[in-house]
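Feature request disguised as a bug report, sorry. It would help if multi-protein outputs had a clear separator. Right now it looks like this:
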Amino acid sequence: INLSVSLLRKGIMPLTFRYSNVQVEEAYFGSLSQLSGYTLKNRNKDLGVTWELKPKGLPTTIVDWGMGSVDSRSGTAGIPDYESHGNHLNVDTRYERGGWDLQGFVRRNQQNSDLLTPADGGTQVGSLRETVLQYQGSARRGFLGDSEFSMDAGSQSTSSLLFTLPIDLSTHYASASLRL
């Protein structure tokens, strides 16, 4: 099932709801010289809403929220099931004023996934938990015909827990350029 419903599409605040629930069953077989095979059932779900704000004379902003999951069930003993669940919130904005093109975004993603690793001749089930936060702002302005001045700045941070190992990464950046 895939469903998308939009409300107020031509207004200053269009709103779109989306839902997806897709189930697929796959069968894998070995070569003709082997008698092997397994089946896998996947269910992918997605639920979300997108809201666009387009007020006259003010910044255009798009807010997107969603959550999704993947559930895989193996039809073969010894091959573990897999689950992954996540959600996101994205905000994008754009504003043109006085010859300047201003843009910015904020993104937050969170994911929890099962993992499988080899351990002591067998396998060990663990998990990955991850949260990513990213934001950026940029400004551009043209002048003297085809010349342009631009600036960008932003940050991204990732916080993960892989099995029992915490991993935290962070980066900040800024740049400016002048094209004559």
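(second protein starts here, but nothing in the output says so)
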Amino acid sequence: LKEENLHDDSKLFSETYLGLGAIARNLGNYDVADSLIDIALHVATEVYDTLNMMQAHRLKGIIKKRQYKYVEALEHYLIALRYAEANTDQLMVANAMNGISGIYKAQKNYKKARDFLFRSYQIFTEIGDEVGKTNALNNIGELYLRQHQWDSAIYYLQKALVLIQTKELKKGEGICLYN
């Protein structure tokens, strides 16, 4: 990549490295994924591409969470959330909040996890994202399961399943049943 083409090609270059990083993450090769996403983040930062900067931090949050590095994961998710809010990207705001809730859930800070989940559910509802809504409902139910609050867990998990059945969300079904 030539320096004079950096601004013209940076979005595609950054997106490509984000995609490669996501593949490495899905394959469980977190060190490679982290390195690839660092390259994407560097390029996006050089030209102040806030959308790819946001995506890079969100992906780094996912990786750090899977490595049980919760403090680092939370830092990256919070940065992604700030970029999403600045770009008024409600879908990314909700996704970042969902990720943040997962960190708090892993740390057994259930109140904070629940707060972020309900906020993400509200946003998914407002923007009409049925799969996101289903995922949030499932995560809320799973959170109550961890706390042995059986009635609440059943209520939210059933709401998620009903949404899948009534909307025929085949994509959401795998997400919903994953937890």
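Even a blank line would do. Unrelated, but nice: The two ends are 42 Å apart (CA to CA).
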